[in-house]
Amino acid sequence: MPTGQLSLSGPVARPAVGTLPIRGDLAHIALADRYLVAHYVAPQPRSVGNEGATLLCQPRPGSEEVATLEPGQAFEALDYAGDWCWGCCGPEGPTGYVPTAHLAPQDGG
């Protein structure tokens, strides 16, 4: 959580796609002291499934690849839409989309 006085001090350059976990509508809660968005999200801890996964820039097959995720690797889920999960490997990235089916089943479900 951010500490200290927060203020709007002018425009801030948006990071490149695939880097920090921030979109126009939401961002990882750890970025609240650096970026202003409509919503901040506390990540949901997940892990990559047994087959591994490719982190993509957009939620569609064939999109530009951001990183290769190893089986069992920790992943922080931030948003789900259809068959896709947008998330990151930590608050400093990398960030992108993976098919939800490529994440390990959640505990208790």
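^ that was protein a. below is b, sequence first then the tokens
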Amino acid sequence: MAGSAELLERMLQGVFNEPDPRQRAAVIAEVFTDDVVFVDGERTVRGREELAATVTGLLAQGPGLVFTPAGPVRGVGDLGMRPWRLGPPGADPVLGGLDVVQVVDGRIARLWTVLDG
């Protein structure tokens, strides 16, 4: 079973940094449970399809921006967390935050994104 460190890395690179919707959907199917719940400051979405649509919308808001890890994965029990930054490659970030995941049976069942500031 995958642990939170591996899942957070796959999520960042294969979902939030993946421009191709088909490839992104394939990684979502591997990494997230069918009934995943994603919560950020603006929305709560349920299920893989809603998650995919939300990520597509988020990526459209910042074309050319990439997510990069901003620290190590930390965790306890079935929870994992990792800070990240968003910005143009090689430039200062425009946004940062923290992802917190709950892992159930080797997949992310819950994802909370807390934005900095």
